[in-house]
Specification:
This protein is mostly helical. It has 14 helices and no strands.
Length: about 290
């Protein structure tokens, strides 16, 4: 007698497929490394704040300061390490915000279609036609959002359209399947059909897109902080670059801008590689197409 494969065996197969994807494994290792640095930041580096040693201002990398010092004599290694916490917080909060808005809109639009779909997708198109980064900068400046949490939520508020559109596309595909029609015929309510059956089976492309949104949110927050609109009380990689530019040492003290830039690139590329690995593991037909 054939037994239906369990959910564990299904995920076990996909996990094995993921670890056979070298790019995905590299991305996972990169993201894991950043997470570990953020968790153990108090052990790895001293807290950053106040003023450093004036005599050590703008000194290059050395045994005492692995990444050199800034224009106030503060250790750049500590700033980059503690900046991982700000970046991870931005990535998580922005994705949560975008998911809470985008996924329900995409589900409802794709399931009910008709007028509901027209209104929902018209709203998505309006947001997609507006350049996201300039609009986020304007909203951040006007609202005087100085908290890193507020900045992350603002980024998420303008990142939901892509999630909504991908969710809607997946919902349309799943809604046309026979088991959804069977569920309707059996009198199952709309809520359980949408969230128990459709959402679970349409989550693969959404999950892939979430990792991309995380990478985009890091770049956006860095741009906002570089322009001086970020949280002045929190050291982020973008704020370090802002300090380098504001001090006039952006070009002369190469280490001032190099190491936070490497951290940003590392984090973004790791998330992109991770999304590629998840995509190929959950949907292997893409790699064969």
């Amino acid at each position: 007698m054939n037994q239906r494969p369990s959910l564990f065996s299904k995920w076990e197969k996909e996990i094995k497929a993921f670890f056979r994807h070298p790019i995905g494994v590299i991305g996972l290792a990169g993201v894991t490394f950043v997470l570990l640095v953020a968790i153990f930041a108090p052990v790895i580096a001293e807290p950053v704040g106040g003023y450093g040693i004036f005599e050590e201002r703008l000194t290059g990398p050395s045994t005492s300061h692995a990444f050199g010092t800034d224009d106030m004599g503060r250790d750049l290694f500590s700033q980059v390490v503690w900046g991982t916490r700000a970046s991870i917080k931005v990535a998580i909060l922005s994705v949560l915000t975008a998911t809470v808005i985008g996924v329900p809109i995409g589900l409802v639009s794709g399931y009910f279609q008709g007028l509901v779909d027209t209104v929902g997708m018209s709203l998505v198109e309006i947001f997609l036609t507006i350049p996201m980064l300039p609009l986020i900068i304007i909203v951040t400046a006007v609202s005087n959002a100085t908290s890193i949490n507020t900045v992350a939520v603002i980024i998420g508020l303008f990142s939901w359209p892509t999630i909504a559109r991908i969710t809607r596309s997946s919902t349309l595909q799943v809604s046309s399947m026979q088991y959804i029609e069977a569920a309707r015929c059996l009198g199952i309510r709309t809520g359980p059909i949408i969230f128990k059956h459709i959402l679970v089976n349409a989550s693969t492309p959404v999950l892939i897109n979430l990792t991309i949104v995380m990478a985009t949110s890091i770049i956006t927050e860095s741009a906002i902080s570089f322009l001086g609109l970020g949280d002045p009380t929190t050291f982020s990689w973008g704020k370090i670059l802002h300090n380098a530019h504001a001090s006039g040492a952006f070009a002369s003290a190469w280490w001032f801008s190099l190491f936070p830039s490497i951290a940003i690139v590392w984090f973004v590329i790791s998330f992109n590689f991770l999304s590629m690995g998840i995509r190929d593991a959950l949907n292997p037909k893409i790699t064969r197409a």
